Amino acid sequence: MEWFRYEIQAAKPLVDTSAPPVYSHLHLKLGKLKLEEDRLSIIERDNHLLLEKVSSIMRTKGQIDNKNDYKAKSLNGEKRKQELRRVNRRTAPFWIELQNPSLSIKFSDGMRIGNKLKNTWPTLQDILVGGLNHRAER
Q1: 75, 121, 68, 134: which is closest to 94 by C-alpha?
Q2: Please, what is the Cα angle at 40 between 36 and 45, to 5 degrees?
C-alpha cells in the first residue's frame, strides 16, 4: 500500500493547466500606444493655439475678428439684367409713344399700342412652358 501512495504522489497530470506563454508584441500593442500619443499631441497643439489666442485677447482690447462684409451674389443676376435690357429695348418705342403728351392718341391708336405691348410681354404660362424667349420670338 505504501507503494501505491508513493505512485499517486509522484504522478503528473495528463492535462496541461498552466497559463499560456505571454508574447510581448501581443501584450504591449505599440500601434495603439502610437495612436494615443498622436491624439495627445494634437490636443496639446490645439491647447497651445487656444492659449495663444486667449492671451492675445487679454493683452489687447479683445476685438472681434468675424467681419461679415461679403456681397450676396446671384448666380443668374447677369441673365436677369440681360433679359431686362432686351425687354426694355423692345418696349421703349411704345412707352415713348404713350408718355409723349404732344401726341394725341385716339382710342383705336391706344388699342393698337396696347395690343403690341400685350404681344411683347410674356405670360406666366409662357414662362413656365417655354422660358422667357418663347413668346418674344413671335
Answers
A1: 121
A2: 150
pTM of the model: 0.34
φ, ψ dihedrals at 62, nearest 5° = 80, 50
What ranges do the domains of the chain cover?
29-59, 81-136
Place of cell 388699342: 111
C-alpha cell at 86: 432686351
| Residues 6+ positions from 61 with CB-CB distance below 8 Å | none
Grid coordinates given for 103: 401726341
Residues 120 and 87: beta-carbon distance below 8 Å: yes
- How far is residue 138's CA from residue 119's CA, in Å, rounded to a whole number? 8
pLDDT tens-digit profile of 51-76? Answer: 998 898 888 876 776 777 777 777 88
Residue type, 12: K
> What value, to the nearest 5°, has the Cα angle with vertex 35 and ends 34 and 39?
115
